[in-house]
Structure formats: structure tokens, C-alpha cells
Amino acid sequence: YTLLLDKRYQEKDSVISSVHTKVKGVAQTDKRIWDTAEYTIPMQANSFFVITNVIITENQLQSRCAEYPFANDFCSSDSSCIKDTMDQQSNGIRTGRCVNYNATVKTCEITAWCPVESKKTAPVPAVLKSAENFTVLIKNNIHFPKFNYTRQNIPQNFNASCTFNKITSPLCPIFRLGDILQAANQNFSEMAVEGGIIGIEINWDCNLDKWSYRCSPQYGFRRLDDKSTSKHPGFNFRFAKYYKQQNGLEQRTLIKAYGIRFDVLVFGTAGKFDFIELVMYIGSMISYFGLAVFVIDLYISCYSCCKSPVRTYHYKKKYETVQNPRRVLYVSYVDKPQVTLIKEPLRTSLQHAKGNVVESHPEKYSDSVNCCTDNSDTDSVTREHEMQPLHVERAFSQAHLEWCRCGKCQKTEKLHEQLCCRREEGKCITTSPLFERLVLSRDNLKDALLYKEPFLDLNSRNINDKLRRCAFKQYIHWRFGSFDLEDRAVIPSCCRWKIRNTYPKDGGSYTGFKAV
């Protein structure tokens, strides 16, 4: 679901853009006509400013005049006005004199552009309240460098008389200022008095896959400044227009402009199918599943009470007891150079059961920490060739069985005990001199037992049991090449009974068919 909904199979790229704006409209006030050149002021970056309210102070000249009555500029005598000083809110430099601002108020005299601005609050209603009918054309060009893809927000069938409407004309790039503020949940008449900042958001969410192509702008609007600020709310600044009088003196008109600054904010991403992204996401998703199991196990183990039913239920569901699990058996024939794996349950005798070759010829008998003496090792190396079954005569016996190939196996009804030392007919491995020395030699078996238990009592009553088990291990290491298969390696019937007869058990009762 996340893979398809969030398009995690795509490679992503961020947008690079440029913005150009043009404001159109004409407003009429009591004294003058305002056109685009007067109420629109270029701003830096992707912004434009529209004047909605003004305080105009005309015919200013550089001279001396009374300061506007701020809190720190009231005075009663010249001693209250320190010469060549100024306050943070002053309009000029104090001359050191205290003069009349009007019939009731005295302020310090200053050298400044006189007369000073006499209004400190914006006019209500706004001078240019009709600016809500102005329109702005926004041209936005975007580029996704990773995909070398360029597009603009001007439709191919662009109608210059259209106006943006979220429902009827969602792609029209011409916006009415009043509609912009309405979409931002603002009242134009109120905001026009002191100004503010509005954000025009252009979002490019592009899908560049051929089978589901989509790349169109989506417009949004919201107010960016905090209108609840108690001091200096809104947005305003001052600028002046300068003139030369006939006598050469410089004169200016000071304008304190209130208005709305529109910031065009462009953002977005483009995506396109990428096989590497798809593989990486699927891989990370699979790894999260594994992490989830680890976290759950950790939580259950660390934060659940030992007898918590949640913990009991968790482990009951996670671990299942398998009844009668399927086992595997390993067999080795003297006339075959490999170890064979056979899976249970058996449908026929183990001798005839089919299996898979899992290992090449077992390693030669060698001296081992768990095996015999150096003397036995030397004899086995020099006479190992005696075990190669080249041309042998068939061994006959009155007790010859259908599954027995050597004629020395014992009769049994159990399928897993019906195993001979040979695959084909021939001499039994128990008749080999190596079998006598490597497997049955009492001296070698005692040395092996003492190697493990140096103080073992070799005259104890149960010494035959230890010797018999050691002989089984010796046979497994010889024919299978490793002690690791001790619990799964099956010893042929002829060999098993040869060892049992050599080292009999008290009572003569035997169980099992492997190294027991």
C-alpha cells in the first residue's frame, strides 16, 4: 500500500523555479488617479507590493521646525532640549531651543525636512480600498534538473481574460487580489488599512511516468505575518519623491505607504520510476519485518511478567512442538566411496532405501585425540589397501538374508536395522584385519578411554559397556570420517553384532541400531 500510494518506486527530484509578476488596475481617490506605476513597488526575490493606504506629507524643505510631540520631545524651556542630540523616534537633530508646536504644546526645535509628518496612524478606511479589484499575472517557470524536465504554469490554451477560481479555473495564472485574501481567510478592507504579508503557494507535485503522467500547479494562499502584534502591526515603509524649485532649493513629498506584500512561494518534487529505488524499498521493508519480530521478542522478554498470559501465549504461538519429527540416517558401504543420506520413515529395508550422496570418500583413519594409539595409526595406513573390494567371492551362509550382502548379518524384522556393510555381494568388513585392529582391539580401545579419563578403572564391572561404545565410535570415525555423525550414523548389522559379541552386555539385552 505504501509502495504504491507514496510511489516509493520512483526517483525524486526537487524543483528549481523563477517567478515574474505583473499587477494591473487603476484606482481613483478624492484628489487623484492611481495607476500601476504609483501603487506597485518592485520587491526583491519572488515578491511584489501593492499600496493600499498612505500618509502623504507634501512640500518638505530642509529647515528648522518644531518636532512632532513624542513623549521625550515635550519641553518647557531651552534647558530641556540638549543641542545636537536626537531621540530614537526623532525626525531630526535638536537645535537646543524649545518652541511652540501649536497653541497648547511646546516641543524641541529640530533641523529636519520640515514640516514633519503630522499623522502617526493609518487613515480609516484605506485610501486605496478599491485595490481588491486589481489583478496580478504570475508567470512561473520550473525545472527538474535530474530529469531534464522544464514546464511553466501558463496553459497552452491560455485565455487572457480568465480569472483564477479553485473550481472553475484552477489553472488560470491571473489572480484577483480580493480573491487571494478571501482564500487566505482575510478581509481585504481590514487588511488594507495597515497592510500585511500574504503567501501565494505554488506546489508542483509531478509524476513523470508515461503511464500516469501528471504535472500541473496547485495554488494555495495564507497570511504569513502575525496580525495580533500589539506594536507596529501590518506592513509599511516610507519613501519620498524629490523636486527642484525655481530657486534651486530641493523639495520633496514624503509618502508613508501601507500595503500588502505578496510572497510567491514555489515548491514541489517530481518522481519517475527507477528500478533501483524499487529494489531498495522492498529490501528495507523486509528488514523492518525482521526488526519488528526482534522488538516484540525483546519487549515480551524484558517487560512481561514471568507468568504473564501474554508471554505464555506468545511463546506458545511462536514455538510449536513437532510430533514424530522426520529424521535422517547416514549409511556407509565398504564398496562405495561415499556417505549416503536416507530420510525416514522407511518403506523398505534400510539396505534397499534410496538416498542422496552427501559426502565423498571418508577420511582415512588417523590419530585423533578421541581415537587410538600411534601404533594403530601406523598399521592402518600401511594396510588400508586391504579394505579395497576389488574381486571378491560371494559369502554364503545358511542364515543368508535377502538384504544381506556379506552373509554375516543377523535376522531382524525392523526395517531400520536391515543394513549390510556392503552394497554388492562380497566379503564382510568384519573379516578385515583393519576392523580387528581399529575397532575391536582391546588395547587400542583402552588407550582411547584413558586418553579421555586418565584414572578410569579398567577392571570395573561395566568396562565392557564402555569398550563397546568406544568401538562403535571408532567404527563411525573410520567409515564416516567424523565423530559429528555419531547420533545419525547407522552401523551395519554385521559390524554391530560383531562388536556386541566381542564386548557383550550383561544379560545380553540390546536396544537401538546405532552407536549404543
UniProtKB/TrEMBL annotation:
It is a multi-pass membrane protein. The keyword Cell membrane applies. It catalyses: Ca(2+)(in) = Ca(2+)(out); K(+)(in) = K(+)(out); Na(+)(in) = Na(+)(out). Residues 330-514 form the P2X purinoreceptor 7 intracellular domain. The chain crosses the membrane at residues 278-300. GO terms for biological process: bleb assembly; calcium ion transmembrane transport; membrane depolarization; organophosphate ester transport; pore complex assembly; positive regulation of cellular component organization; positive regulation of interleukin-1 beta production; regulation of transport. GO terms for molecular function: ATP binding; extracellularly ATP-gated monoatomic cation channel activity; purinergic nucleotide receptor activity. GO terms for cellular component: plasma membrane; postsynapse. Receptor for ATP that acts as a ligand-gated ion channel. PANTHER family: P2X PURINOCEPTOR, P2X PURINOCEPTOR 7. This is P2X purinoceptor. The gene is P2rx7.
